Amino acid sequence: MQTRRIFFSRLAVDSQIGILDHERGARQPLHIDAEFDVKIHTSRKVDDIHEVLDYRRLREAIIDECTRAHVDLLETLCDQLQARLLADFPDVMALRLRIGKPLAFADCAAVGIEVTATREVTA
């Protein structure tokens, strides 16, 4: 099976996330790096957006999931986002998500969580 990789680098999303008092009810930026290994359909027509996974749809799903409601932990957000992306996009065979909180600490660019997942292929 052939795959193609779609990636996002530092997608900025304002999200309601965190366990601290000052984080509740407020938005803070998240930076999201994501990679998607997408199944290539060999019978596809050349240069037709309907024959490939439109990365605009992936971006919309990421933003929607990250802005939907307050989440306490980055771990929870990563798990929810991973589950949604695998459920909504059957051509995604594997993914890597890295979500960073750039304002968490003054002495580093960001702190965050990274998750990877591979779709189980049934023969």
Number of domains: 1
Overall average residue pLDDT: 92
| Major beta-sheet overview | 4 strands, antiparallel
What's the Cα radius of gyration?
16 Å
As a percent range, the share of strand residues is 25-35%
Order of the strands making up the biggest sheet: 1-2-3-4
Structural class assignment: alpha+beta
CATH superfamily caption: GTP cyclohydrolase I, C-terminal domain/NADPH-dependent 7-cyano-7-deazaguanine reductase, N-terminal domain
The ordered H/E elements are EEHHEE
Please tell me what the overall shape is: elongated
Helix-residue proportion:
10-25%
| Count of DSSP-assigned helices | 2
First-last Cα distance: 13 Å
Low-confidence stretches: none
CATH architecture: 2-Layer Sandwich
CATH topology: GTP Cyclohydrolase I, domain 2
Q: What's the β-strand tally?
A: 4
Q: What is the CATH C level class, in words?
A: Alpha Beta
Task: Describe what is shown at a glance.
It contains two helices and four strands, in the order ββααββ. By secondary structure, it is of the alpha+beta class.
Give structural notes.
- The chain is an alpha+beta fold and 123 residues long.
- The chain has one domain: GTP cyclohydrolase I, C-terminal domain/NADPH-dependent 7-cyano-7-deazaguanine reductase, N-terminal domain (GTP Cyclohydrolase I, domain 2, 2-Layer Sandwich).
- It has helices at 55-67, 74-88, and strands at 3-15, 28-39, 92-101, 111-118.
- The chain has a 4-stranded antiparallel sheet, with helices on one face.
- The chain is elongated and about 55 Å long.
